[in-house]
Amino acid sequence: MFPRLKAIAQDLEKRIPYGVLRYGLVFGSLAVIVGLRYASILIFGRVYPIAVLFMLSYYLLILAAAWLGYIPGVLVCLVTLILIPRLFATSPRAAQFDLVRFGLALVVSLLVSRISQTRHRREDELRRIAQELELRVRERSEEALQAAIATRETEDRLRFVLDSADIGYWDYDVDRDETTRSRKYDEIFGYRESVPLWSREAFLKHVHAEDRGSVDTGLNEALEAGHRSLEFRIVWPDYSVHWVWLQARAHRNSEGRPIHLSGVIQDITLRKQAAESLREQAQLLDLAHDAILSLDWNGTITFWNQGAERMYGWSSAEALGKNAFDLLKSALPESLQDIESQLVSKGHWEGELVHSRRDGSRLRVASRWALRRGSDAEPRGYLEIDTDVTEKHRIEEQLRHTQKLESLGVLAGGVAHDFNNLLTGILGNASLAMEGVPSSQPQRMLLDEVMKAAERAADLTRQLLAYAGKGRFVMRTVDLSELVREIGGLVQASIPKGVQIRLQLANGLPGIDADPGQLQQIIMNLVINGAEAIDSEAGTVLVRTGTQTVDERYIESVSAAGDALRPGEYVCLEVHDTGAGMSEETLGKIFDPFFTTKFAGRGLGLSAVLGIVRAHKGALKVYSQPGRGTTFKVLFPASVKTVSPPPPAARDLTGSGTVLVVDDEEVVRQIARHTLERFGYHALTADDGASAVEIYRSAPSGIALVLLDLTMPVMSGEETLRQLQLINPKVRVLLTSGFNEVETVHRFAGKGLAGFIQKPYTATALAEKVKEVLASRAGESLSSGC
Question: Average pLDDT of 116-139?
Answer without folding.
Answer: 82
